[in-house]
Structures are given as C-alpha cells and as structure tokens.
C-alpha cells in the first residue's frame, strides 16, 4: 500500500469483461504512469496518485490514493472517464465508497473572451480572461474548451455520483473540444489558445468556427489542465502537424537552457510557419503540405520515420498529429522496442470523424 498519499477512496467497477478491461487500463496507462500488472492485480503509480486494482470474477476493486481531497477528486474523475471510455457500448457500472458530490468537475474554470486575432492565415489566437490563471502554469498544458450555445445562458456540467462528468443536454448542449494552452499571462490572468482554421468539406467544425466568430465578452469554460507538458529530458525530438504546433511552440519556449531539441513540423505552406522562441538549442524543419507530391505520399510520417533512424535511445520522442499518422509512428517506435516512458505519441484529430 502507498504510504505517502494521505487520502484514499475505494470503488467497485462492473465491466462486461474484467480481464479485458484491466488489460486495456494497463496498456493505456503505461505511457502515463508506472504500471505493475500480475495475476489480476495492477498498480498504476504517477507522481500525483496511485491506483490499485484487484480483480474478482465480475468486478474490479479499485483504490485511489492521492495527496489531498482535491487531487483525489480529480483522479477519480479522470479514472472514471477512462473506464467508461474503455467500456464503450458494453454495459458498465461504477460505484465509490463515497459518491461524488453534485458539484462542478475538478479543474473547471469559467473564462471570458478578451480578443481573437490571426497569427497566420490559418491559425487564430483567442485570448481568455480568468479569475486566476495560475493553475495553467507549468506541467500539464491541455484543456477541454466548453462553448455554450450562442445566445443562451450557459449551463455548465456537474459531477455524477460515479465521478463522471454529467454534461448538459438538448438545447444546453455544449461544444467540447480539446486544445492546448499556448501561453499564460499571470499578471493579467489571461491565457491564449491557438485554433487551426482547418477547412472541412461539408462538415461542421465547431471548435475552429468558435475561434473565427467569437467576440470579446463571450462566456466559455475550460476544464483542465491535463495531458502532460514539456518532457523531462536533455534531448527531445518533436514532430507533428498544425494541431500540435501550439503545444510544440509552448514546450520549446519552456525548455531550459541546455536542452537540445529538434522539431519537424508540418504546415500548409510557408505562410503558416511561426517563429519559435526558446532559451534552449532548437533545430526546426518545416514541411509544407501544399508542396507534397500529388500521390498523397505521407510525407510527415515518412520524414518522421526517417528521422527516428538517427534518434538515440536517450532522446525523448514527442509526436502528435492525425490518428492514422500517429498509428504509423507508434508501430515504428514499437518495432524499435523503445522505452515507452521516453515517448509521447498522441492523436490530436481524426480524419474519419
Ligand atoms: C491534447 C490535444 C491538444 C490539441 N491542441 C490543439 C490546439 O492547440 N490547436 C488546434 O487547432 N487543435 C488542437 N487539437 C486538435 C483539435 O482538438 C481537433 O482538431 C478538433 O477536432 C477540432 O475541432 P473542430 O470542431 O474544429 O472540428 P471537428 O468537429 O472535431 O471535426 C470536423 C472535421 O474537421 C476535421 N478536422 C478536425 N481537426 C482537423 C485538423 N487539425 N486538420 C484538418 N482537419 C481536421 C475532422 O476530420 C472532421 O472531418 C488538440 C487535440 C488534442 C487531443
């Protein structure tokens, strides 16, 4: 049992297939925590929490340990959301020794739009004002942006007893999209998010459209931050498309002197390149999608695969882009049998959606 975490919470999950779910939990969390998994018992350990899971024929017995009640509540919600996601359409139930109170989810912040401006022709920056921007400093850098229907008083989510987030429905349904906090200004309590204006034939693009149309004074909310930040490594290889550019730009800005970084970034054309500021050593290479061969060759994936040939085992590999590109790079990294603790490989959008 964990001794340095002061508070704990027990839960019982009832999935359709206990072993399959525990396998999926361990497979997913191995990139976010230390996972020990033997004989139907798993321990997931991160800096902020420990989650112990023991199986019976029908149930997962869960114990979450954390440093304080706030962190415990956030961990419960994070884990509950994962479990329901892993369950998919299959029947699933989850109960806790102390049910979650019906309050705003952990890490919920109301925000007001201050301004919106183009950084490049396809990247639009929205500045948001918060009561306190300090939770967005350091560490995790991604958020869920919640945009209420225009012209309606926002109805914000509350927790359900099982720890999940209960989202408003019907006319109050929110647009929810994941973005990166590009920068934080503590003096003015403002944060910026950069939104790619991606053209999608015949499909709505609510996240991109919000950034295009928003005006000062619009009320939105942020949930987070989560999802990691600058890797703790002396040598980092970054790669990704425009959806990853805000994250890469923020991380290279936060990297301390002494870190050596390479960034391979795919944008539409030269007009979409951005100056990346850093105190560390950075070599940047821009790929222009508009100049790719007409056969649609996967140039980002091809170039990343080629670059990986020369990446040492100590180098941290960070890659984010479209889902199928990410799958290709994951396979390539798996073939190299790299330590998964030294990589972050995440899909930021899905061309099939
Ligand atoms: C951790 C994380 C951080 C992210 N950070 C940022 C960020 O800082 N800035 C940012 O712009 N995006 C970011 N993204 C990506 C963003 O969440 C997605 O692009 C999202 O789908 C945009 O929502 P939408 O409403 O505009 O389009 P959706 O309603 O989700 O999709 C509509 C259509 O547009 C297509 N589409 C979606 N995204 C793209 C894209 N990037 N390029 C081309 N076509 C696309 C879809 O395939 C679909 O056909 C991030 C994603 C994650 C997971």
Describe this structure in words.
The chain is an alpha+beta fold. The chain has 3 domains: 7-96, TATA-Binding Protein (2-Layer Sandwich); 108-226, Translation factors (Elongation Factor Tu (Ef-tu), domain 3, Beta Barrel), CATH 2.40.30.10; 235-349, 3-Layer(aba) Sandwich (Rossmann fold). 20% of the residues lie in helices and 37% in strands. It is built from 6 helices and 19 strands. A hairpin with a 2-residue loop joins β7 (108-120) and β8. Flavin-adenine dinucleotide is lined by residues 142, 177-180, 193-196, 198, 200, 203, 205-208, 227, 243, 246, 348-351, 353.
Question: Characteristics of this structure?
Answer:
353 residues; 6 helices; Elongation Factor Tu (Ef-tu), domain 3; Rossmann fold; 3 domains; six-stranded antiparallel sheet; TATA-Binding Protein
SSE layout and pairing:
Blueprint: E1 7-15, H1 18-29, E2 34-38, E3 41-45, E4 49-55, E5 60-66, H2 69-87, E6 92-96, E7 108-120, E8 123-129, E9 142-147, E10 158-159, E11 165-166, E12 175-185, E13 190-196, H3 206-213, E14 219-226, E15 235-240, H4 245-254, E16 260-267, E17 281-288, H5 299-308, E18 316-322, H6 323-335, E19 343-349
Parallel strand pairs: 15-16, 15-18, 16-17, 18-19
Antiparallel strand pairs: 1-5, 1-6, 2-3, 3-4, 4-5, 7-8, 7-14, 8-13, 9-12, 9-14, 10-11, 12-13
Helix pairs in contact: 5-6
The chain binds flavin-adenine dinucleotide.
Flavin-adenine dinucleotide binds next to strand 12, strand 13, helix 3 and strand 19.
In whole angstroms, the N-to-C terminal distance is: 42 Å
Give the radius of gyration: 21 Å
Any idea of the CATH topology of the largest domain? Elongation Factor Tu (Ef-tu), domain 3
The level of helicity is 10-25%
Spatial strand order of the main sheet: 2-3-4-5-1-6
Report the major sheet: 6 strands, antiparallel
Bound molecules: flavin-adenine dinucleotide
The total count of helices amounts to 6
Mean pLDDT: 94
CATH superfamily of the largest domain: Translation factors
Helix and strand element order: EHEEEEHEEEEEEEEHEEHEEHEHE
CATH class of the largest domain: Mainly Beta
Number of domains: 3
Poorly predicted residue ranges: none
**What is the approximate shape?**
globular
Secondary structure class reads: alpha+beta
The second-level CATH architecture of the largest domain is Beta Barrel
Annotation, overall tally of beta strands: 19
The fraction of residues in strands falls at 35-45%
